[in-house]
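User: Before I run my own analysis I want an independent prediction to cross-check against. Here's the chain; please return only the structure tokens and, at the end, one sentence I can use as a sanity check.
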Amino acid sequence: MAQLAGPEVIAAATQLMRAAQWNAAADLIRVARADDPVEQRALALTLAEIAVDQDFSQQTDNAAPALAAVARALETLPDATISWDLAMLHLRRDYSTELFASDATTFGSDGRDPTIAKALAERAAQLRDQAPDEARRGLASFYVGVIADNLLDDQETAFTHFTTALELGERSGDDLLTSFALRHLGHYAHAAGDLKLARQQWEYSTELRQKVGHLLGALAQQTLLAVVLRDEGDPAGARAVATEVNRWSRQANLPFLIKQTTDLMS
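Assistant: Structure tokens:
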């Protein structure tokens, strides 16, 4: 039987995840066999990340068993960094759930419970303060920012943390984190009417996501470039870009991008 080292399996599964092939990525991890408990724990963490990423991208809710498996692995083989990574995955999952909440009859007009948003913000800030390295601190800062922006309507806090995330992403060489920060900073440039800066930030964010093979991320950025084309006075160009992104998004089953691009196409 052919054997592969754990790190190579994890790297391949991560690339499949970024290519929006979540089921193939999960299958690859599940068929991997490892005798080393450290590798077993690493495989479990990767499977949990795949599940959380798929839940966000396709608005499913299947990550709980994979997250629980990592927690069990940590009981027998504790590790501070892996514990931090697991806590971040839980935060990402809970943020996704709240971001896409639609039960407006229970809470405010957007269907979200403000106490949940505040608790998420506190968890993100704690992860930022406890992060074991700059890249992880930058990721936690980014989540402080998106929670402030999308759930708490606190743009000042969000902008500050997106700027911090950009600095830490660039300093640590984390292209994906850098792209996340640029995407959201571009929204502020766009809202201020600075289409030139918004285009620059969104184009560079797109390039970084293409560089690391992040299909959903690249499509999300191309959707924003369609918005810039529309606002620059090129509705035909905007519709053309949106149409192509819509086709990709339907093939990959990305609900929020399907909706956004459908709106731009019309």
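Sanity check: Residues 37-58 form the longest helix (22 residues).
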